[in-house]
Amino acid sequence: MKKLPKWSKVAIVGTLMGTCFGAGVYAQDVLQRVDAYLRSDYKVVVNGQAVQLANPPLIYNNSSYLPVKELASHLGAVVNWQESTKTIYVVPRVNPNQPAEGNESNYTEIILQYPFAQYMDYQGATYPVLLNNTDQTYYRLSDIERMGIRTDGLRKAKEKFTGQVYVSETELKNVWGNQPPQMSYSRYESFVVSGETDSLKLKALKTYVESYRYFVVDKVSYSWNPVIIDKLPEENTYYYLLNNNGHFFKTTIKLTPFTNYSNEISDYLVASTSVEDIEAGKVVN
Questions:
Q1: pLDDT per position as a tens digit, 141-154
Q2: Given 9, 35, 138, 179, which residue has the most CB atoms within 10 angstroms?
């Protein structure tokens, strides 16, 4: 048996990290076979706290390699794998041009003017994003944070009627540099649902929106134009932002599961609160 060399103890995570993604099928000249060792006796400490990795560190050529996806979870980061380009994205990242100081609580006030939601590609994943165009384009803060983009020190704005916080595209350019989010061409839908991935729930929400999109009052036709549906912390509950003729409203949607004879969920019943005018007093165009 080959005698193992004497190894130094690892206490702090280094910058070299292996991945937990499968190698897949590659051309032979891309792969390189090496001899390495798994060291289950190594300890890993992240931010002063010992962590137990399911996959032990790998030692090769006197360097320590750790599973990037598992390690990222301890660092509060997200790891995305893009098969088409064989690229691993680790987010969040911090741009050195990010300003050290900014407005964190004394927000600039903006109003809903031309809000629109769309799916955007960023660092190997696709995210729903709500944008609002006033004097410039603003990105909703909660969507930006979901992407893993750091906004510490960036000046922020608060929308007058919804209370939601936004960050201007001008400010965000200090963080994402030359790799901004891009409109997704692989995912396009008539309206965006944020935070929900269950196909049955998405179907119920979309059916509800389309069913009540058009209505007639005193023989005059009107239409609700959906802006975005956001999943709320309460189970099966959603915040729906919509507009009519440039005036904005909101309602709360609640889903109730409907089970079949096998006691399996086959559909969802949809109920909503009355539509609330969030711009009371504003003159409708």
A1: 999 988 888 887 78
A2: 138
